[in-house]
Amino acid sequence: MPAFLSPLFLIGVAAAAIPIAIHLFYRRTEPVIDFAAMRYLRRAPVEHSRRRRLRELVLLALRVTALVLLALAFARPYFSDAVAAGSAPATMVLIDTSASLSAPGRFEEARARARQAIQGAPATHAIGLAAFAQASDVIAPVSQDRAGALAALAQVTPGAGATRYRAALQGAADAFKGRSGRIVVVTDLQQSGWDAASDSSIPQAIGVEVQDVGAPEANLGVMSLRVDGGDAVAVIQSFSSRAEADQVIFSVDDRRIGAVPLTLGPGATVEARVPLDGVASGALSATITDRDGYTADNVRYAVLDAADAVSLMAVTATGHPSEALYLERALAVAEGTRGFRFRPVSGTAFSALTPEALQQVGVIAVLGTRGIAQRGRERLAEFVRGGGGLLVAAGPDVDPAILKEALAGVVQTSWALRPATELTFAPDDSRHPVFRVFGGAGTLGHVGFARAVRITSPAAASVIARYSDGSPALVEERTTGGRVMVFGSDLNYRWNDFPLQPAFVPFIHETVRYLASPRASRTDYLVGELQAASAPGIVDLQGRRVAVNPDPRESDPTRMAAETFQAGISRLNAAAAQVAESRAQQQEDRQFLWWYGLLLMVVSLAAEGAIGRRLG
Amino acid sequence: MSAQAAGKRPAELRFLDPAVLARLGTLELKARAVVEGLLSGLHRSPYKGFSVEFAEYRQYLPGDDLSTIDWKVYARTDRHYVKKFEEETNVNCHLLLDVSASMGYGSQGLTKLEYGGLLASSLAFLMHRQRDAVGLTTFDDAIVTMVPPSARPSHLRSILVTLDQMTLGHKTDVSKPLHLMADGIGKRGLVVLISDLLDEPDRVVDGLRHFRFRGSEVIVFHLIDPAELTFPFERAARFRDIELGDEVMAVPSVVRQEYLDALQAAVDRYKRELGSEGIDYRLIDTSTPLDFALVSYLSTRGRRR
Description:
The structure holds two protein chains of two kinds. By secondary structure, chain A is of the alpha/beta class. Chain A has three domains: 2-81 and 586-615, no CATH class; 220-305 and 523-555, Immunoglobulin-like; 310-520, Rossmann fold (3-Layer(aba) Sandwich). In chain A, the strands form seven sheets. An eight-stranded mixed β-sheet of chain A has the order 18-17-19-20-26-25-24-22, sandwiched between helices. A five-stranded mixed β-sheet of chain A has the order 7-6-5-8-9, with helices on both faces. Chain A starts with a strand and ends with a helix. The model of chain A has no long low-confidence stretch (mean pLDDT 84). The two termini of chain B are 28 Å apart. A six-stranded mixed β-sheet of chain B has the order 5-4-3-6-7-10, with helices on both faces. By secondary structure, chain B is α/β, with parallel strands linked by helices. Chain B has two domains: 2-46 and 90-304, von Willebrand factor, type A domain (Rossmann fold); 53-86, no CATH class. β3 of chain A pairs antiparallel with β9 (247-250) of chain B.
């Protein structure tokens, strides 16, 4: 439905009354002249009064249209995805399917309460059903079909996701699409379900009602599983007020390798350890029995596989291999698990990549910025935020302004061209992983630079190599996600002879491995982080195995009071106006309708001018 | 077009401005002022030789009136000569005056009808003075009034009274009345049409051709107002047809040239087609003195003789 970001400007529509008033009260401004020789005048291109009146009406319409469009453009129109507020109210039943509902009998209770909520909803209300854990999933859209909602409810099962109330409430509120009504949340009121970082909100017209299904009194959970010094180590935590006894069974690829009996005091945490006996690959799991607690956290998985070859994507001007020839040759030297996967792409092709396509990439080397569109710049920032490594070779094909814009808010290091000077470079910190292999500056000192850039880095960044004039040559900036390195010259034998030097190959290998390490080492994901994995277990992620486990916070059965939950809803309501305004702003920004309004206004005025000139 | 009537307009002061003339008293007085002014001027004018009083001499014959003997000639030549006066022949002159609504237009205080009335009365006065039989017919889309030709002394007054009392008629339709009148003229004569000719040229020419077919001489005075001649308007305006009442919107600067071209084309056509029929065509700007029209008449009248 249409809406306006600045509706006060709609008052300007009243200005349309001005040309109408002029038309009504001053329209006969031309004098009337009695004339006899009309026979000759009619042969000239004159305009008969009736046709003129019609044209005056067209002119009036164009003028009014122009004024209305101007007012509309200033009011910043946009199409809201909400339906008319006059639609029938609705009841949305939100059933918790998080891992905490996997305790015996809990989900049956939840389903029964959800059924009651559906059947007991006011007759005038439409009914919708959504399941939620870390996100909301509408399984029966809002409609009058209660039987359909009940049928859908019968198919719902608990999962292994974490509870995230705010995201769930937001998803349910969105399903209302402007209706009023209520959300019935059927949940165990798990305290860890509140996520303060979320910015979701629900409208004031939607009330929230809680149906508490209760929680088990005790729970044991496998909180972590790792390999430590040739042993498999599992951490078991008790969320019980009494002592509990259990045993941890370790397996590799479904082959039992050991079991450790446990006795845990109230709230205690215990490590269980078994030797792997040289097993270097496979899917490791640790399982407990805990019949009274949550089922989903009774098993945890880990991957024993060695690290895979690092994937590097080189962004160049055209994507032709010759633009990254020396980089490609240097990486091709390594083989096996120490090897690299190299892929050159043009800036244009890079901009068209999806985030999923970058999931398997460990490092992006930017050797050229031509063709990197706005979407490509956003991808670059997302990649770094997501833990990817970025190597920037500040050569002739790299525009510092483009990268500065792309990495704004992520990286502060910048650079500028400087006059050509003969330079060499040396490590500033020889213990840095990139230079550790060299054991000193000896071999790097032979590299000659004909041109270089002047790097300006923030205090938090590390200068790990310097030119012979003392200026930074290689700067590392760590972000909250991945690592970024800026090399102050090119890597393709244009501004320096580095690619011809023996130090080039080990330098490239170590740099790429270093940048790739945060992402390449990750083999453990939480349920919900990967679209391909909705349940715990070992899954294949683009050629390599990773473990998917429940969020450990979900194992804590600590509950909050319904009042606390409602108080959280109230805070959401208070923030709703601001958030709604922010969302409206975003919608309006995307749709850009005001620009079309102004364009149409200009067209109207041009037409008015053309017709007006003919009228004299 | 206008050049004949307006552009080359002589500046002699003896010519009375039509607007001034219109302020004189009776129509008879006005006609007399025009005609006598004209005739007194003819003695010095380039139109010498067109005197209506011209006479010839011939030898006395038994039976001639003794009072006509010119004794001065007898004294000089010792022979009896009698003075033969001009025009003892009678010519039937028919004045046809258009009184349609379009003749009511006048941009400078004098309408075409008023000008046409002055012209008709002056011609009537002049004709009567020459002892020609004068008749008057007014018409719009039909014959309105008709005064048959007569040379009687009291007849001039009848014509002047008729002209004085005429009112504007309806729509212009020159052709139909012309055919009716052509059929009604029994004797060959002189036909003078005074009109703004705002009709289909084909129909006008066809009607006048009818008179020629009946053997009459024809003079056409095409009256046109100065504003019609130059279209001097500046501002965009609604032009209302004074005959039909409908309006058209026009921007003068845009339509002026096309209007003037259309008018010129119509005048050229009248000149060409009426000339080929042996009809005198005179375009008369109603701001020019009446003398020009009268001289045109005299020229044609002389040719008839």
